[in-house]
Amino acid sequence: MPKLKAATLQSICETISSYFPDAKLDLVKKAYSFAEESHRGQLRSSGEPYMIHPIEVAQTLADLRLDIASIATGLLHDTVEDTHATLEQLDKEFGKDVSDLVDGVTKLSQMTFKTSEEKQAENFRKMILAMAKDIRVILVKLADRLNNMRTLEHLAPHKQKIIAQETLDIYAPIANRLGMGSIKAELEDLCLRYLHPDVYYKLAQKVSKTKGDRLKYTDEVCDIIDEKLKEYDIAASVAGRAKHFYSIFNKMERRKVDFDQVYDIIAFRILVDNITECYKSLGVIHATYKPVPGRFKDYIAMPKANGYQSLHTTVIGPHGERVEIQIRTQEMNQTAEGGIAAHWKYKEGRFDSRSRENVEWVNRLLEWHKDLSDPNEFLETVKIDLFAEDVFVFTPRGEVKQLPHGSTPLDFAYSVHTDVGNKCVGAKINGKIVPLKYRLKSGDTIEIVTSPSQSPSKDWLKVVRSSRAKAKIRAFIKTQERERSREFGKSILDKILKTYSVSLSKVEKSNELLKAAQELSVRTPDELFVAVGYGRILPENVLPFLVSKEVLEKHKVAPQEQNKLGKAEDESFLKKVFTNNRRRSESRNAIIVDNLDDVLIRFGRCCNPLPGDSIVGFITRGRGVTVHTTTCTKALDNDQERKIDVQWNATMQANAKSHVKIRVLSSDEPGQLAMMSQAITSCGVNISSAHIRTTKDKKAIALFDMEVSDISQLQKVTSSLEGKKGIISVERVRS
Ligand code: MN
């Protein structure tokens, strides 16, 4: 409740000394003089000297038992914004701790809350907590807001409404979050007064009119409880008091009723010395009055996220009315009213980040943001970044967007709209052009620059952080690759069909292609093109549906003629397609891919794996699976999300041959090549090609291209060669 007596420097110092007897008050006194001088001549809207405001703010902070730096900040909080004082000056006079705090409060004060949408409010609360890296900044801001709300009557009505709404949407929930029950309640009541004056004054009138009855009733219940507790030797203080207006208003709204019973607005509180007595008292209450089922809450065993602890119960009272009772220890009560500050343990006047209580408090606070990995990381100093994993940024219209830490303008663009993301070419942050890789900071205002000719590329996946942006970019690339595969598949079929004098466009019109597609278990001609383009369906398997048997037979028996049919260009193209497909089908059979049948397999040319090599696959959209050796650097560079388990097909290894190259360094002697060739072929290995050259220092370098069935056969070749005279080294060539 508002203070009756005006605060002074002396009252502030007395309050500090009451909880921190050794406090060095010099800093507070110095801050007072500095603020007094800076604000000299300034008046508040009420006509009073401006200095009254910072003094009241500092007093509130002292009442919250905050540290010296916070209280000095309370005195100085408006100097940078409203006077000629600068941060550099504060830094010099009061040190970095205080100047950082003042800077934080000034920044928070400059933020205005533009929309009252519920989601926006939540984002704003989070943003405020994110921007104010030091929790003390928020406490000073709350004290500032409390004093502004207490003196709101001096402002114009439309300003009152704006400030009250912002307080209700942003600051009261933050106070609640921090467990500061009495500040939250006072802020809410003041908000109600300015936002719904009719309700507020009606309530106030009713509450005051029923005061006599209420006191009589309260005394009656308190006496009974007191007596019962004494019977059981429990020392307790029992009190009943009217709930705050806003909570009555809320209850009325929720139940759609007017309040008419005095006890509807009273809550009783029993304060005892320890937890055991809390439960003992509860037993006494429940033995005296019948409890209302489902109304008992044990916040002692299960504290609220903001640290609140208490037992709550509702019982049927002496007149058959419902009575709400809270039972807690004195200490819990202090926490409930003062919140986090009551938890703070000081060491030489500073927040002690290592005390167990402080650790627990921060941990509980962090539960708000459930997926924080290691809250202990944040305990290094009091500078607690509550939303370290998120940044909060503005659209040009002032809406807030929450994005993962490390997000870039591209993430922002995709959070606005997929089309904005896809067409994004650049961004302006706070009016200045930045690269797409720019890391967004909380508070940035972002304007996206788009161009109709822009389209997403794979590189963008490395730039974005949010899963939404990643998904959208992948979806675009997938569609694009599908389109490319479709075109590629179509052109393959077209060229092959031409060699049989069949026109693709004709069969397309005549429904034959549709039939072929359905026979091959793809639904449409388009899907067939895609499948051919991807390599899932071989073109020669499509031919029987589109080319008559006779024509196909003719080509088979007269391959020379087939060559004559096509142009030279088509010939080479065909050759390429068919050899490719043959190689594909071979490799397809040599490799087993988890959960995937009939998939196009390619071997990485970088490492050229041999059967027996330890291997890994990567899905390459539109190009099937590429297989690398597990040690291949290119495989390690690949996007690990596309990784897929692959195995050598053991049953295939006997027949399948793989090409492998080796380089043999030897002394340059006659007959060397013949000797090496003999060593290789004696292992049962075919040599496809061999090259040899000599070096100036009388050495010979031989390159063999061989066909081996697996890695063990290669090893056999290697050791056979190494055992021969004059051989210096044998190595496998990876590319
Ligand atoms: Mn202020």
Overview of the molecule:
This protein is an alpha+beta fold. The protein contains 32 helices and 23 strands. The strands form seven sheets. Strands 1, 2, 3, 4, 5 and 6 form a six-stranded mixed β-sheet that branches. Strands 15-17-16-18 form a four-stranded mixed β-sheet. Strands 21-22-20-23 form a four-stranded antiparallel β-sheet, with helices on one face. Helix 2 (26-38) packs parallel to helix 4 (68-76), helix 4 packs across helix 7 and helix 10 packs antiparallel against helix 11. The longest helix is centred in the middle third of the chain and has 33 residues, at 467-499. The chain is elongated and about 115 Å long. The model is unreliable at 366-387 and 557-586 (pLDDT under 50).
- Categorize the overall geometry: elongated
Q: Please report the total strand number as a whole number.
A: 23
Mean pLDDT: 79
Beta-strand share of residues: 15-25%
Structural class: alpha+beta
**Between the first and last Cα atoms, what is the distance in angstroms?**
80 Å
Question: Can you summarize the main beta sheet?
Answer: 6 strands, mixed
Small ligands present: manganese (II) ion
Q: State the low-pLDDT regions, or none.
A: 366-387, 557-586
- Individual helix count: 32
Overall radius of gyration:
40 Å
Helix content: 40-55%
